[in-house]
Amino acid sequence: MGVSKKEKLHLYTRLTLILFIFSILFIPFASCESNESHTYRIGVLSIYGDKGDLKGTWSPMVDYLEDTIPNSSFEIVPLEYDVFSQKIKAKRIDFFYCNPLLYVEMSRLHGAGRIATVQPFWNNSSYAGMGGVIFTKAGRDDINSLKDLKGDSFVAASDKSLGGYLASSGEFHLVDINDADFSKITFVNSQKDVVLSVIEGEIDAGTVRTGVLESLIRDGVVHKGDVKILNTKEYDDYPFISSTKLYPDWVFAKTASTSDEISKLMTIALLTMPADSKAAISIGASGWTVPADYSSVDSLMRDLRYGMYVDYGKISLKDVFIQYWYILVFIILIFVLFAVHSRWMLDKKEKSQLESSNRLKDLFMDIMRHDLLNPVNVIRGFSDMLYVEETDLGKKESLKMICSQTDHLTAMISSAAKLARLESHEDMEFKVQDIGLILHMVVDSFSTEFSKKGINLVYENGTEYFSRVNDVIEDVFSNIISNSLKYSPDGSTITISVQDKDKFWKIMVADEGDGIPDDIKPLVFDRFRRADKKGIKGSGLGLAIVKRIIDIHKGSVGIDDNPGGKGSVFWVMLDKA
């Protein structure tokens, strides 16, 4: 079914009306948006306090950029060296123009990017690069090289200037000269004043940026013969005398927050700027060239520990730990393993030596008991036989003394062997036993001796005093009771008791002998130390054996005066089981 002409006309009319309304509503807005202007701020490094002149100097540049880049306006912001970084960090500027030293820092610290390098000119010809000139007053025969400047005074315009100071510092660095080698360094904030102070003899030597001397000579301020150039270097197609390596010139750069679109437009505008334009002439250049490589400046700053590299190469303990923690952990682990292994080997060696020593000691003790006791027993046997057969009273008394001393020697050999075996107790076994039963058994073994001396025994015959002990504990009680019997007079009383002392059992043996002086009490448990009692037999090892056995049981032993009167109380403390 076809569409009539009237219907077609009606449809075309509706489409035309829609297009008309669309053009009224949207096209003007799009046009307004595309014509919207944006202001960009250009930070320019102010040197030697020339802020007031910068805006006037850069006014032709602003006019050129606004004419070249549509819908854009530009504002020049003079910035001192010290505030440059904070302005970029705060995103207060979009582009900036500065010396190479400052650009390297802004690039490293804030991600700035170079757009173009300034193209200076001399005698109507452009050139590339800048450096420093080191000079002294003409006629200074004592100064002919850089090393001759040690101990002399030196002058420069600013310590923040690449051509005016740092380039020369790089040359001094190569011949091992630093700032401390000069008698003094002066900064005068003017390249012209640097030259004049040297020529007038106020300062021994100085440095200025390449081209400064030639400009002053051309203007008639100084004469070529007024100065002596040091460390001269010549470069092809470079119009100035130089004493240093050449570095790239000042740079126009963008901040990290500046869009790529306006950055591209700015790059095109700078690189196409005519050499004879007011903008180029106003900044003393023939225009701009593609951005130079500033890595040589970065290397110089690093070598001289300048700016952000002031602490370059210095690593704190914190930095070492953060960067190399895994190496430190590995070293510590190796050290620990080495220490553990060394300790293990040492313990193994000591254990082996101890075992060998114990075997030798045991062998010696066995030999001593066997090979010494045998002849002692033989002597005793013959002495007894001679004593029975002898009729001379004097000789019988001598034989009796021999028998007595032989018995004493036998006791000493037995005690010494026992004490030696106690020195190595690693294999001793401990088990829970009733101290009361052990005491009862020991007391019974001395019943005959008690009877012979008519000694009254008071024994609190209790039981269930349980402690974890070795069977050798019996020798402790035997020695203490035997010691009390020796020193107790006939007819006296010996009291044996056990007291409950919280975590311990306190076993006490009290006698009514002469007692032990206070100055002797600490010594009676030492080897071969005994109270001076004439006529009392003993080896001097009995109480030493007691002390050793109690030490092995981690207990304590001591002597007190008998609170009941005359005599002493020997006591032993053992852990409860």
UniProtKB/TrEMBL annotation:
Enzyme class: transferase
Record keywords: Kinase, Membrane, Phosphoprotein, Transferase, Transmembrane, Transmembrane helix, Two-component regulatory system
Record field: transmembrane: 12-31, 324-346
MF (Gene Ontology): phosphorelay sensor kinase activity
Domain Histidine kinase as annotated: residue spans: 367-577
Enzyme Commission number(s) from the entry: 2.7.13.3
InterPro entries named among the record's database cross-references: HATPase_C_sf, HATPase_dom, His_kinase_dom, HisK_dim/P_dom, HisK_dim/P_sf, Sensor_HK_Regulatory, Sig_transdc_His_kin-like_C
Catalysis: reaction(s): ATP + protein L-histidine = ADP + protein N-phospho-L-histidine
Highest taxon listed in the record's lineage: Archaea
Record PROSITE patterns: HIS_KIN
Pfam families in the record: HATPase_c, HisKA, Phosphonate-bd
Name of this protein: histidine kinase
